[in-house]
Amino acid sequence: MTFCSMPASLLYQLEQELDTDEKETMLFLCSDLMPDVSVPDVLQLLTTLNEKEMLSTINLSELLYRLKRFDLLRKFLGTGRAAVEANLAKHSQMLSKYRVLMTEINEDLDKDDLRSLSFLLKNHLGTSHKEKSFLAIITDLEKLDLISPMHLDLIENCFLTIHRRDLAKKIQKYKLESPAHFPTMNTNTLQMSLPKLSLADPPEPVNKERVMNGACAVQAEQIHISIPETEVQGCNKYRMQSKPLGVCLIIDCIGNDAGLLVKTFKSLHFEVHCRLFLNMDAMMHDLYETARLRAHKDADCFVCILVSRGNNQHIFCTDHIVPGFQLERLKDFFTGERCPDLLGKPKLFFIQNYVEPSNWQGNASLTEADGDLCTIPQVADIFWSHCTLDASVLERSPCSSSYYLSTLAGLLMDPQKRKLPLLDIFVELNNRVYEWNRINSTEQYLLLLKHTLRKKLFLTDKDFSS
């Protein structure tokens, strides 16, 4: 069959239509086609492919289809999406499935994902890749022979670690569809491909032999649970007898409440780790290292307190990175999956977020949060208290304490109040904040309280002195 080359004018016009990200994607998609030829830009790539008779109408259509530039398919080639999909189903594809997979994953990643990946891969790539795109990171890993079409475990494990199971499943699906390249999946790999359970998902029976939260031993070989973390049968309150009770991590990027918080949780017999004025990278590092502490194994509880500027769903830390760190991900560091020593144990999160004026929304006349505030992932044994306050308060009174945090500290340090279940303490906290908002119209606190506790939680025990 005679090959018909593409007019140079068409290639030039097409290249002019692409933005920087699309050009990077095209170069990545085609990098296997001419491994011995250096192509510094897209125009040179298209020209070289054309000269080598590799740029037929079908192949160019495939390229534009993978870029999702269906408008250019119509404009330059007179075809449409459905026609290209039909051709791809009938003919062999020019682009490798591996590179197509990587570009599809690239489209699904946000800045928080990239920041987390950069942190996990810094031992392999150093810190110079922090501002690089996902495709640039993959290219660097390929150069180090850490990833290839036949070796994807590294990046798959990274996605599992940052709780992007959807992306890990794409890699697992690719492996299953390429049996010649990959060994048969073992039981552990198959288990990792299962969907993450929610509170409503009935899981398969599991073998239970270990004692969770130090309270009750389960004798039955198999039991059914209705939550994704271990259920302890026959107990109506969490065990809170370890000395110390657990680790309390305080990250305060404002600096007005750290001293009171340290005093409060030391009085509750926690091992307190206080970090002040952290930037985003330092905070990520501290969260990662705290989740790895061996102290969790013998402890009965974990507490994380975070104070920062931000918006309703993110915090900015001291370097004010926008959009910032997504609060939804904070607790992911400490779930049983990432931190097995905390499996079945209560994990408490107290957030004071000073919302920047441009992001402030809603009427704070009541202490309930609107739907724009972040919610927690549906895993067991989480207690999530999130308070937002207009950051303009810090401009008016730079050294002022948070009424939410100071009231919380006061209630927890009251020998009588802290004998109550934690949820009862928060009823009192809500009432006090409600009264504050009623009297102070210029300093309105918005509270969000959600939890997946399975038992009553007391932050003291009769074996402890008050």
TrEMBL record:
KW Repeat (keyword) present:
yes
Record keywords, A-Z: Apoptosis, Repeat
SMART domains tied to this protein: CASc, DED
Name all DED domain ranges.
Answer: 6-78, 97-173
Q: Which PROSITE patterns match?
A: CASPASE_P20 (PS50208), DED (PS50168)
Please provide, in alphabetical order, the Gene Ontology terms of the cellular component aspect for this entry.
death-inducing signaling complex; ripoptosome
As for family, the record states:
Belongs to the peptidase C14A family.
Q: Could you identify this protein by its name?
A: CASP8 and FADD like apoptosis regulator
Which species is the source of this protein? Answer: Naja naja (Indian cobra)
Gene encoding this polypeptide?
CFLAR
